[in-house]
Structure prediction request, 471 residues.
Amino acid sequence: MEILHISAECYPVAKVGGLGDVVGALPKYQNQLGHIAKVVMPMYRTKFLYEHDFDIVHKGSFGMGTYWFNYTIIKERTNKLGFDLYLVDINGLLDRESVYGYGDDTERFTAFQIAVVDWMSQWQHRPDIVHVHDHQAGLVPFMMQHCLGYRHLAAVPTVLTIHNAQYQGQMGWDKSGYIPNWDTWEWGKLDWRNNINPLACAVKCVRQVTTVSQTYLEEMRSNANGLENLFEYEKGKCTGILNGIDTDVWDPAVDTYIDPNFTKKDAGLGKLANKKVLCDEFNLDISKPLFIFIGRLVHEKAADLLPQAIYDSVYHMEGKMNFLLLGSGDANVEWELENMKSQLVGYYNSKIGYNEKLSHQLYAGADFLLMPSRVEPCGLNQMYAMRYGTVPIVRNTGGLRDTVIDFGDPGGYGIRFNDATVWDVTYSIHRALEMYSQPEIFKEIIATIMELDFSWETSAKKYIKLYESIK
Ligand code: ADP
Prediction:
């Protein structure tokens, strides 16, 4: 099968969160199963672009409202990612350093999608599956089915994967003119609560919807930022397929970001040496358990609970632990995390920003990972952490619930709590200290989590099965 993945992110070209990781890995594993999976994404101005060679494969142009854009499709020459990578260049819109966060993101991603559909419409053949990811590619199925110039693509089976239903790409109806010459009888497919809603539109138009864990699929029917009724109505075509992790990239035995490398056999010493690097750099005490958090500092991740939970833990548990946080996002949380540094010297430190290398070092050197998320469709951090022998402390939600079993339950190995509250986080830290204080049990848990199989093989096969059911 030939599968075209359309996404705003793809690791290592451009990554903001889990979407990038998934789109950078799933196609590779689909190719290993004997299929032809390709990725098309915007050509941002990231390091990857300047460090690789590309060939121009197509040039075209299209109108978007009153604007006219030229676009170029380039293809990475060496196939080094394990799949064909195509980038869409649109000068004036996509030629930026960051993926998101610009005032014209609506125009940027709408134009990206038009360019992709326009390019695909000129292929000599049709792909077997068009697989769109999140709202930034959500209008593609509609365009293939209802834009008059692209209707010859209408029969191509389409799949949507929702990595996060909180973000939907809504725009006002004043922007409906951006979508090229479309059948206005079909306006209802674009609409959700009097706005154009690309994510809702994709759910309505595609043949199959997947979300990145089974529990998140169930939760979306009661908590999906306004789309709950839609997911209830469309539940017949929705499936949960848990993300895997790219074990080529995330392997403590060969990871070039960490020093030393280690395996399950020498995890004790290996992790300690990595912890030392962190403790030296961030002025922490290597003899205490190290708790980390890595992620976007946003409401969904409940990062706002961390400052108080850290104060309470340090003060009420006699400073028996250290904390090290890495993330960026909400300005208030960033400010609080910075501010705490001077008040909790020797107990806490943080790095505001995005730092791929440090994230690997943290997974390798920490003892516990905190994930108090209010919403977590799948969550990759907990899986990376476990592969690097770091025990996850997670809220009982979404993919966290599907991947972490509390150590109090049969076969358990992590720590789970129910409420996104300071109290529950602090109490879980207390439980973690208990676990840590029993070295034999702790060692056994580390061995167990490093053995768990979160590789892509199983999930990649599930996607193929799903494609086969709609071909
Ligand atoms: P989400 O996609 O909601 O942000 P996931 O857990 O699915 O959350 O994926 C997060 C990914 O982004 C992981 O690979 C994590 O290591 C990475 N990440 C998040 N924040 C940072 C950061 N500040 N620096 C480096 N990596 C980060």
